[in-house]
Amino acid sequence: MKIVTYNVNGIKARLPRLLEYLTEQQPDIVCLQELKTTDETFPEREIRDIGYGGVWHGQKGFNGVAVLARGADPVERHRGLGGDPEDEQSRYLEAEVDGLVVASIYLPNGNPRPGPKFDYKLRWMERLANHARALLVEEKPVVLAGDYNVIPNDDDAYSVRALAEDALMQPESRAAYRRLLAQGWTDALRTRHPRGAVWTFWDYQAQAWARDAGFRIDHLLLSPQAADRMLGAGVDKEYRGRDKASDHAPTWVRLR
Question: Active-site positions?
Fold first, then answer.
């Protein structure tokens, strides 16, 4: 079973690339982020036409997450992240597919910092940790997949100096990510590539793709029951180089 996290950076603009990826790679489950569209305008028909069912949680012009499954309709479990009734941003969607629980996560960026956006990021990460802890109690195979907007280690970025002031690399962001892992989650990509230098994102600016000046912010965290079934993890990097591609590459884990 191939499970993918893929920030599409606007599903309408990237729909040809998404359909291309689904057709060529045929992943079993795909967690999408940054849809930038409403529930009503989500391209359900086009996605169903190539054999995928889905659930989605959209927002006009911003955010938005979805879970797709090949030949199946995911069963929605949670829409939105609890802990803040005033938070209306579409950043979390949890579903079940054939006994596997998957969540599509679009964690706040946090820039500029310091300021309210960074404070919101840290509060959101605390809420995620609280929910993740409850998921572990269920003792099910779970994959928390998404754009975490956190660069966990120095070797997860092309240049520490260039990103030193970015919210993605701040000690508070990294500490929150480590606290999440300490609950018992396995960072799939890091486990398979312990020396780092595996990127999932390349900015559109400053010829980042041409220079391979990327960093790793797309993560798949596995519960112990899912980690026991892990066969491999990687990045389908070449899709970032295609015409009018997202600035993220599809990132995946394979489970038995």
Answer: 106, 147, 248
